[in-house]
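[agent] plan:
  1. take the single chain provided in the ticket
  2. run structure prediction with default settings
  3. attach structure tokens to the ticket
  4. add a short note for the reviewer (M.T.)
[agent] executing step 1
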Amino acid sequence: MKFQNPNILLLVLAGTSVTGLIFLGYNTNSFGYKEIRICINLTKEHQENSNFQSPQGLQYNQPGVVGPDGKVIAVTPWLAPIVWEGHFDSFLIDSIVKPQNITIATTVFALGKYTQFLKDFLESAELNYFVGFRVRYYLFTDHPEQVPEVKLGEDHHLTVIKVASSNRWQEISLSRMERLEKLIESRLINEANYVFSLDVDTKFYGRWGAESLGRLIGVIHPGYYQTPRDQFPYERRPESQAFISAAEGDYYYGGAVIGGSVKDVYQLAKTCREQLDIDKGNQIEAAWQEESHLNKYFLYNKPSKVLSPEYLWQDFKPHTNEVKIIRFSQVIKNYAAVRPNP
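[agent] step 2 finished; step 3 output follows
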């Protein structure tokens, strides 16, 4: 038998920390293996620090969420998973991650009349959200006396943080990144491995577990997952730091879910807060406050994992063929009644 390629190289990678790579060279004449060691220092720290930063102004086709055959797309063009029901084994993933004894911090903002959503949020979370994991809720509110008593599961804890009230709901939204940044600096850097920031006017309807964890997590907004990017509600004014041109964009990410490692979410919150401060100094407010700046950040700092609209639905929307299960959804409400200003 004649081999077209007399040398076959097998690259073996094992574990999460690699200090050297071993090439096994296959020689067809002797049917023996020759070991060649090449020392490359790919440490765990290096791997965890790696990310996908996109050059500004780069032109490429808009990624899809649903293919022409009607089937959901399970990976982004930069090879980040898009998490859909049926594409993972929840029992297996949770079983792998639980022994690592991680802590998931979860920030919730309930100011003014938004405290009315706390009971459903917390009770539904305790039935579905990281059940069996160590979870620490950090609740920002201007009415601590209105926080309901909810029985928390084992290793689930609630910390209430009192903040000042606001006369504009936009101010509440605009201050979210700053409060998240300061909380990570003061506490979470020593208390948690991962952090999610979730909107309180929501409810859990299905299991949410370790499949959602990653370095930097974004969720696809349910209202725009099949919309051309030039119709996304991005900030279109060049005067704003959140500006995205009509020719740019991957997905429209919902601001109701922000997540990732503590370190990476800190960098996200810090950058968005700095951009918000610049806009404020220039007397401009992005179209959708922190959500606009979040989308700008994700455009150039690609998420390592993207959650499908299963992880952020809207109660008024009917089920679709793509969304097999609704895990987390924004509840129906009268905005004029709950916001301090219309």
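[agent] step 4 note for reviewer: The longest strand covers residues 103-110.
[agent] ticket updated
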